[in-house]
Each structure stands twice: as C-alpha cells, then as structure tokens.
Amino acid sequence: MSTRVPDEGSEPRGDAVDHADGVSRRVALGLFGLGALGIAASSSAHAAPDERCFSVTDGRIEGRILPSGIETEGTLTGAGPFNGSTALSIAQLAPSAGLTGSPVPPTTLSYTGTFEITTKRGTLTLEDVGIFDADLTTDGEFTSRGRVVGGTGRWEDARGVLFFYGDAAADQTFTARVNGTVCVPK
C-alpha cells in the first residue's frame, strides 16, 4: 500500500495527511469502516437450531433526556417485536471519550449504562457503551452498542447486539436509529 506524501512547502489536502505510521487519513477511515463492518457482522447473532432470531434493520427511537442528564426515555418503533418503551440509565461518563492526553475535546463523552426495551412480551436489558459528541453549536450526536445481558418474558435467555446512532437537540429531545439481531430460545 502506498500513501501520497505532499511536496515540501505545499499545503496537504485533508486525505493526504500522513500519520506517524504512514497511513493517510482516508485509508485510516476506510480501515476503521471495514473493521466496524467486520465487528457488526461477527457480532450479529446466528440462530442455533433451538433458537429464533429477530433482526432490526431500521428501528427508530424518539425520546428525551431526563433532567438528571444521565437518563433517557423514549419509544421504539419500526423494530417489529421490539417496539415499545425505552430507558437508558448511564452509570459512568468520561470526558474526552475517556482518552487522557488526547486531542479529543472534553465535550466528547464516552459512557456505559443499562438500556431497557419494554415490549408487550417482556423487557430486554442491554449493557450499552457509547460516545456522545456535544461539541456542536445546538445539539449533539451519539453512537452506541448494546449487548443483551438479560430479559424477562419472551426475552428471557436472549442474546445478541443492537447498534444505536442519532442526534440530540438543544431542547433535550433525541432521535436514534436501531439495527441489530437478538436471538431467543424456541
């Protein structure tokens, strides 16, 4: 693999800036994207003969951040059997995405918490790990990965992963997209 090095004295384009390891920004982002796809593909649950799997390809959460600032509530739609109410309770927050000594601004927060989806058939509990970037003028963006850690009713003994990404507005409301797969015993 070759990377283009700008001529001395010229201003490099954004995609031609070499990092210390010789990888351009464009290549690094491409590798990151491929890695994320690989993680998503390897993380999605595959049904065993005694399981039934449910895939969510474009669920949507409409919600709000509660006054505590570390809890949310919302409604999940477009997710088939997972349609219902949602609640996130953040247990830990870290500024600068938890990376000390990095150029990441302190308004980029990493977090972990418990995310619950309450449906007509029970509650699905996920361990949620995410990034919230509040370094924007009027709103913020977030992305997270929720690993199933428990459930009640139909979701008892469930396993799988759901991915979330979205935007939060200045009025403390947010929208999120949901994708992933959850499997349950037949």
TrEMBL record:
InterPro entries attached to this UniProt entry: TAT_signal (IPR006311)
Record-given protein name: Dirigent-like protein
